[in-house]
Amino acid sequence: MTSSAWVGERVRLRAREPEDWEAFHAFDDDSDAVRSGWRLVPPTSVARAKKAAIEHAEEELDLDEFTLAIATKADDVLVGSINTHTIDRVHGTFSYGIAVGTPHQRKGYASEAIVLALRYMFFERRFQKAEAWVYGYNDASLALHHRLGFVEEGRRRRSHYANGRYHDEVLFGMTVEEYAERYA
């Protein structure tokens, strides 16, 4: 039996496919969840959602900066996505973002997806530190990062505007050594 670096106990990280448009489009209906991930934007049409899904599926593969779908291992139900960004090869750092659709939250999908993505970035791509920015009002994500063993490294005060108020952004970091001690 073969094993995949992209499969955990509950989730499988996979490429985004054109047929994923419907699930991603539905996730955008929860304005609070969208705000917690980045920023609220006007609704998009079905045509635009389909077009965006095709464009994502056809993007050139980048080994360090990518977006993957998070699907359940058991039945391949799309539950969210994880992406890497802000790649700094000189210093060996990267950031990531994660979004799990509201109906699929609090089931362990996000934590497992983060652990899988970090394992790849640390042990296959030779990065030495992962960073994540979390909005100060996103209690679930703050708790998730603490639970995963991330260190709270700083706070940018009043740097994010959402729902009529300014909010702090909290910076979390984890080094490859911290990851290996906990997950290797």
UniProtKB/TrEMBL annotation:
- UniProt-listed PROSITE patterns: GNAT
Report keywords, A-Z. Acyltransferase, Transferase
Q: Does the keyword Membrane apply?
A: no
Question: Does the keyword section mention Transferase?
Answer: yes
By its UniProt entry, which Pfam families does this protein fall under?
A: Acetyltransf_3
Tell me which InterPro entries the record gives: Acyl_CoA_acyltransferase (IPR016181), GNAT_dom (IPR000182), N-acetyltransferase (IPR051531)
List residues of the N-acetyltransferase domain.
Answer: 11-177
The cross-references to PANTHER family, in alphabetical order and at most eight, read:
[RIBOSOMAL PROTEIN US5]-ALANINE N-ACETYLTRANSFERASE, GNAT FAMILY, PUTATIVE (AFU_ORTHOLOGUE AFUA_3G00765)-RELATED-RELATED
Sequence similarity: Belongs to the acetyltransferase family. RimJ subfamily.
Name of this chain's protein: GNAT family protein
- Whose protein is this, by species? Nonomuraea maheshkhaliensis
Q: Lineage from the top down?
A: Bacteria, Bacillati, Actinomycetota, Actinomycetes, Streptosporangiales
